């Protein structure tokens, strides 16, 4: 009988009594009175938490509905602005377009404010979940400590003496079954702690993501407010220049077009003096996805420029209707133009380093790229983003694919708000200083030999 008891003892107890006691003491020491109250009043605590969670979710749902309404309103303004671009260029239409742009930006400001409010609520909700999970983990750890104490106490007993206390082996077997059940509860509790810890880790990761969203929305809010101020200033300046007279506005457009043509001839002369030989295999093969879309692409596709695209194009690469009318000095369009209302986020086409930024309007208004960004990429391509309303990067800065680098606009020579996007062979493009006879000032802008301009749609 004694041999049987010792064999059973070795098979059921894997931990020494001293180790179990230390473990149980450690689990009990981390348990605070707050968790003890939560356990003793579990139903009350659960009811309070559930009520608070429901109230918080109702607030989040209300903000989500408001965001959807504001997004729809902003989109309606974008559609209206897009429709005005096909209308004749009159002062009345231009003022209306600026007014619609200001209204759109005001809506986007409200949208950013609401997104910030909702994100704060979501962070608060996640923090509550984190707090609850932390308490539950400590409760489970306390339970585990008590179970380990019970196992330690059982292990201190001499099984032979325990066996001799029973008249029947079935009673002893029942006792041993109780020990086995105790061990199962230990493993079950350990599993529950593991699940709770994973849930806690997931909630913390989600909360960190929401904090990043909050920072992004805060930056967007500040940017939109700045853009709104700029547009209002543009409207004031336009009215001052034209004295609200159509004739003077048409004269302004005519002068800008003449200046643009003369400047394009100067740039073309400078670029024809540049030489570059494209080495075989130095550039990536034509394939979709080599570069990402420089604006947020929609699920809708458009059949334009002899292919299917995910952003609406207002002008293709190379020979276009506009270039056939004498634009670009007869060399064709050196990029593509995407429809984009003022304030649309402009995205880096892929990871790279900002080579330079500039604003041709400081030297010659309404004549060239306006605000621009030039980015070098590791695949031997360089991308240009022009006619921006605001730039958000600086020379030498490393950026990742999809990073917001600026906002679209109508700076430089642009008959309407849009994004000009060019792709170059990296080794051929340079940021040059052009002494413009037309403007009488030095102008800093990207220039390249004609064969270094590549069709962006071959890589998007």
Automatic annotation (TrEMBL):
Query: Which residues are listed as membrane-spanning?
Result: 12-31
**Domain (M23ase beta-sheet core) ranges:** 332-425
Query: One MF term from GO for this chain?
Result: metalloendopeptidase activity
**What keywords is this UniProt entry annotated with?**
Coiled coil, Membrane, Transmembrane, Transmembrane helix
Q: Where is the signal peptide?
A: none
Tell me the CDD domains matching this sequence: M23_peptidase
Q: What is this protein called?
A: M23ase beta-sheet core domain-containing protein
């Amino acid at each position: 009988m004694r041999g049987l008891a010792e064999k059973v003892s070795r098979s059921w107890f894997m931990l020494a009594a001293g180790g179990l006691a230390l473990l149980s003491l450690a689990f009990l020491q981390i348990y605070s009175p707050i968790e003890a109250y939560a356990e003793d009043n579990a139903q009350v605590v659960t009811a309070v938490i559930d009520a608070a969670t429901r109230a918080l979710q109702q607030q989040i749902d209300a903000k989500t509905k408001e965001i959807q309404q504001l997004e729809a309103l902003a989109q309606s303004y974008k559609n209206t602005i897009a429709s005005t671009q096909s209308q004749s260029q009159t002062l009345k239409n231009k003022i209306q377009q600026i007014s619609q742009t200001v209204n759109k930006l005001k809506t986007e400001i409200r949208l950013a404010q609401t997104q910030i409010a909702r994100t704060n609520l979501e962070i608060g909700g996640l923090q509550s979940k984190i707090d609850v999970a932390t308490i539950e983990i400590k409760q489970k750890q306390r339970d585990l400590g008590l179970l380990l104490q019970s196992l330690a106490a059982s292990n201190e007993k001499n099984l032979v003496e325990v066996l001799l206390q029973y008249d029947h082996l079935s009673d002893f077997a029942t006792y041993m079954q109780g020990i086995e059940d105790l061990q199962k509860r230990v493993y079950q509790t350990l599993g529950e702690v593991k699940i709770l810890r994973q849930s806690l880790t997931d909630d913390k990761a989600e909360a960190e993501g929401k904090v990043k969203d909050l920072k992004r929305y805060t930056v967007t809010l500040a940017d939109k407010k700045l853009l709104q101020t700029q547009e209002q200033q543009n409207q004031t300046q336009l009215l001052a220049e034209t004295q609200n007279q159509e004739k003077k506005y048409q004269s302004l457009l005519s002068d800008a077009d003449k200046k643009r043509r003369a400047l394009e001839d100067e740039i073309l002369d400078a670029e024809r003096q540049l030489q570059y030989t494209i080495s075989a295999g130095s550039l990536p093969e034509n394939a979709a996805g080599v570069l990402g879309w420089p604006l947020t692409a929609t699920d809708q596709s458009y059949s334009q420029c002899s292919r299917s695209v995910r952003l609406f194009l207002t002008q293709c690469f190379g020979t276009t209707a506009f270039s056939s009318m004498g634009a670009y000095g007869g060399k064709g369009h050196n990029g593509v133009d995407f429809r984009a209302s003022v304030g649309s986020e402009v995205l880096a086409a892929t990871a790279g380093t900002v080579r330079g930024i500039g604003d041709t309007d400081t030297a010659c208004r309404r004549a060239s790229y306006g605000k621009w960004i030039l980015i070098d990429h590791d695949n031997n391509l360089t991308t240009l983003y022009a006619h921006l309303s605001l730039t958000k990067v600086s020379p030498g800065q490393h950026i990742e694919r999809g990073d917001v680098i600026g906002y679209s606009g109508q700076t430089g020579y642009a008959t309407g708000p849009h994004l000009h996007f060019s792709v170059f062979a990296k080794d051929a493009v340079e940021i040059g200083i052009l002494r413009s006879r037309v403007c009488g000032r030095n102008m800093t802008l990207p220039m390249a030999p004609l064969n270094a301009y590549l069709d962006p749609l071959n890589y998007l």
